[in-house]
Design brief:
The protein is α/β, with parallel strands linked by helices. The protein is built from 13 helices and eleven strands.
Length: 335
Amino acid sequence: MIIALDAMGGDFAPVSTVGGAILAAKESKHKILLVGPEKLIAEKMLEYGKKHDAASLDIEIVNATEIIAMGEHPAKAVRQKKDSSLSVCAKLVADGKADAFVSMGNSGAVMAVALFYLKRIDGVFRPAISTAFPTIDGHCIIADMGANVDCKPEHLAQFAIMASSFCEKVTGIKRPRIGLVSIGEEPTKGNELTLESFDLLKAADINFIGNIEGRDIPKAKADVAICDGFVGNVILKFGEGLAEMMFDLIKKELKQHPMAWASLPFLWFAMRDLRKRVDYNEAGGAPLLGVNGVCIVGHGGSSSKAVKNAILAGSRAVEHNLTNGIREAIARYKK
């Protein structure tokens, strides 16, 4: 399997991306295409090579002369920078030279480049970013996480179809429970978007359990939470901030109680495992559902570990034939 990695995407690129590519290549048998300025990437590979024996790994540098920065206008940057590391990654997949591409860069540009080169799956109105949110006993997939801030009811219905297919294909959950994020469990609660979406979801061939509230997501009431990208992104960012706050509060309180602080060595493994469960670096990245090819969107602040996990997430999506699964699910929904 061949995975193309945008070596210049993310706040800490190319250090984090080159490091992540090496970690992924060491852990898997996949070939990694590092896409970016050849000279710069080669220098970083040499730095890491001394420590990780990178010369023996199946990593190839693909030259790209331009970079799309995090703050650039997505559509404009994609149109003007045809030889950006991000565009070259998408072209590699579109041309069949890579099985998936991964980027930790400008998420709007990732979506724009995927639409430009890979195109939408026939019948898909809007692609959606689906993110795994930690829950009490696993994860809940949130779709959309930020690709579409303004949505129509039919968009949310398709998000549910695609996310349900992703759960079944990649995570192995049969007939995942689909919940519509609203301000109350009753079908009559919500705004115009959720009220109209409720009826569409109820009629779709999915395991729709009705409305769920924000508090139901961490309680694992649903396997998939459906919402527009504005709400989804707020949920995700609030969750990240809440997790950090909780760990800071725990450390603060422990320091104020000497006996409790002394017990920290006994709590270390539990604290480590808890942090691992809420750390976005563990998930690595989120698939962009609805395009003709596997595209993984990562967090801008990703570490090398997160980049590695994003690459592995892309390989799992390819192995489970996610794109074809979504194509079949959308075709059934249209009928």
